[in-house]
Amino acid sequence: MSVLAEISGSIATVGYGLAAIGPAIGVGIVVGKTIEGVARQPELAGRLQVLMWIGIAFTEALAFVGIGTAFMFGY
Prior knowledge:
By secondary structure, the protein is mainly α. It contains 2 helices and no strands. The mean pLDDT is 84.
């Protein structure tokens, strides 16, 4: 039996890379929906922008959980 390839190193870096995809998609959706909402009702632009920043903050919290998990299990 022969080994074709050997993987060495920490798999945590791959895990964090995969964990970063979700927040990136989430931020894109939040910003896109905010732009759509402002286009439909421009008078609500200020309120929608505040809600957008709150949504981005919650979405980016997932990235912090991902990097924390990578440090906990990877090292």
